[in-house]
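Narrative progress, year one. The postdoctoral researcher (J.K.) led the effort to move from monomer predictions toward full complexes, under supervision of the PI. The following entry was the first complex the group processed end to end, covering 675 residues in total.
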Amino acid sequence: MSILVNKDTRVIVQGFTGSQGTLHSEQSIEYGTNIVGGVTPGKGGIEHLGKPVFNSVEDAKRSLDPNASIIFVPARFCKDSILESAEAGIKLIICITEGIPTLDMLEVKKRVDELGVRLIGPNCPGIITPGKAKLGIMPGDIHMPGSIGIISRSGTLTYEAVKQTTDLGFGQSSCVGIGGDPIPGSSFIDMLKLFQDDTQTEAIVMVGEIGGTSEEAAAEYIKNNVTKPVISYIAGKTAPAGKRMGHAGAIIAGGKGTADNKIEKLQECGVYVADNLVSIGSKVAEVLG
Amino acid sequence: MNLHEYQGKALFAEYNLPVSKGKVVFKAEDIIDACNEIGGSKWVVKAQVHAGGRGKSGGVELISNPEDGVKFAQKWLGKNLVTYQTDKKGQPVNCILVEECTNIAKELYLSAIIDRESQQIVFIGSSEGGVNIEDVAKNMPEKIIYQGFVYKDDSLNENAENIAKVLKLNDQQTLQFIPIIDNLLRLFVEKDLSLLEINPLVITENGDLHCLDAKINIDSNALYRQPELLDMRDETQEDPSESEAAKNDLSYVSLDGNIGCMVNGAGLAMGTMDTIKFFGGNPANFLDVGGTATQERVAKAFKIILDDPKVKVVLVNIFGGIVRCDLIAEGIIAAIKEVEVKIPVVVRLEGNNADIGSKILSKAKIKIESINDLAVAAKKAVLLAK
């Protein structure tokens, strides 16, 4: 088992023929991901990376019956691309792009919720189920099939957690980057639910950072609903208030969103918190004995 | 991106919101003309900086003689204003807003944000204005209302009335308040704001509502479709290194320590700062060099980090994902030569081809400490900074 994606997931790529779309699709196909085709408006009818290209998601949907889409289009077109996929009936959408206006995301989030679509991202590395499918920009070779579910707001921090759990021999069931934006398509809680129900997952690593209160909400949820051990790391203890730390969502505002608040709440709710980025793996080992 | 009060008020006026008659001046002697043009016998002169707390720091004055305004302007123009919201250096004052004087009966608070939890635009209102709203939230939470809004929704009137009740407005004022909320919401959405704050929104002695201040932040991700707002950018209000970094698509925030950091990825950059602190050191900056750490970007990043005279050592932490570490290593070496880095550099490479990258670094004829383990690398940097 795993969550969200596996060998049978039929994937289309929006922004397939662009430089980012091409680079990452090539690597995903090489990893074994079942990419069935792509969409680039105006380029319908051609073949790219040996797969058919369509003008619209609707056309692709009719011919290929995909059940997931991964989006690499520039930020200013993302709102339309996500909504196009959602309206065409794709139920899992992963948006990698960074820099989407927040008001666009408010509109998108409302609509995908209405349509019952699972949106991952934006501003995220994507999802990987090691050994089965890679829908994202993460380096495949640091992953290993295994028992740890990983959820993170950051790309490279996810890779750290992955590397450490691979090095210690645990491996991962699935890894999901939910993204660093203030209005993400999916929350920690959405992913915790899936990992709790996944038989392959024995423990969950949740990598958070300053800004917002989604880690606090997750902590409360874990206390009441998650029976598997959760290990967490929160980045940004040294971040000053009021400054945006790279990610649009990583800002301490009005005294809310500090690392200390989050860590305190997580510990209160029975989450094991690694006190350092380099000790995520060893904390997992300690907890799983 | 932030706007000055005078720019915010110009936007308010465009959206039919009640603001004072005013004029911005860049030269002290222009104050007299500005007072004459505005008319009346009393004026308020306000130093324009991107920070709150100006009144308490002497940056706002009430004058009844234009000559006093000239003196005020002479005192502030070209100087820095330090408030509790700025750093020790303060923010440079390049212009002064002259406004007609408003007679205040009561001060209220009104702001709008994008609320991450409820995922909608939320207006925050309080009957306690002119003070720090965080203090009100802590000490008198019953005097604050958080009201969510959906743009172009038909419940606007009802929602606005909910706020009006907490603000204790009378019927007449509530009738004024509903279009104010309507226009503010339109402004928020049409101009891609991330924050809008009126502190204080006042009731005048005539009983009318009036916007006495205007604080506006714009969503940086949306600036591409707000060219007229982008033109209002005042770079003198920003940290020069941060602006320089932004021009090169690097994310940089300067901090107080002496260990420069260059990292790929925002989360890992924060994690690296925390690791330095954990081992007893102090980071000099946050810097996300991005997913493609090419020679050009690394060189730019080195320049920005080394511009800070406090920096005694640089810790480079790269997790090679899609980009191979051997290429990154070559980029780092070339950049160090190009920029002529003279202080010690500790490099930690991990991920794709990290071993080859480390070998390239250790063979280079420049002084680089190549350490694969982040904990060891961080400890080394802390030691070198002492």
